Amino acid sequence: MTKYIIRRVLQAIPLLFLISFLAFWIYSIIPNTPFRAELALNPNATEEDIRRLEEKYGFNKPFPVRYVEWLGNILRGDFGRSYFTKRPVFEMIFERLPNTLLLASSAFLISLCVGIPLGIYSALNRNTVSDNIIRSVTVFFTALPAWAIGLILIIVLGGQLRWFPQGGMYTIGKEADLLNRLHHLALPALVAGIDGCVGYIRLMRSQTLEVLRQDYVRTAYAKGLGRSAVIWRHVLRNSIIPVWTSFGGLLAALVSGAAIFETIFSWPGIGRLVLDSALKLDYPVVLATTMVGAVLILIGYLIVDIGYAWLDPRVRLE
Amino acid sequence: MNHRAPHRRLTRAAVALGIGALLFPLLAACAPAPPAAPGAPVQPGQPVRGGTITEIKFADASTIQPLLIQDAASRAYEIKHYNAPLLRYDPETLVLGTKDAVAESFDLSSDGLRVTFRLRDNVKWSDGRPITAHDYKFTFDKMKDPQVDFPYRALYARIERAEAPDDRTIIFYLSEPFCPILGQIADINPLPKHVFENLNINDNPLNIKPTVGSGPFLLKEWVRDSHAVFTANENFYLGRPYLDTWTIKIVRDQNVAFSQYKSGEADFVALRAQDFEEAKALPNSQVIQFYAAQSSWTYIGFNMRREPLNDLRVRQALSYAVDRQQLIERVRYGRARPTQGIVTPSSWAYVDDVTKFTYDMAKANQLLDEAGWRRPPNNPQGIRSKDGRELRMRIFYNTGNNEREMIATIMQAQARQLGIELEVIGEEFQAYINRVNNTRDVELFILGWLSGLDPNGTENIWSTGKPQNATGFSNPRVDELYPRAATVPGCKESDRRVLYGEISRLVTAEAPYIFLYENELLYGLSGRIQPVPFGKLTDASRDTRYWLWYSKTGR
Question: Has this prediction a pTM greater than 0.90?
Answer without folding.
Answer: no
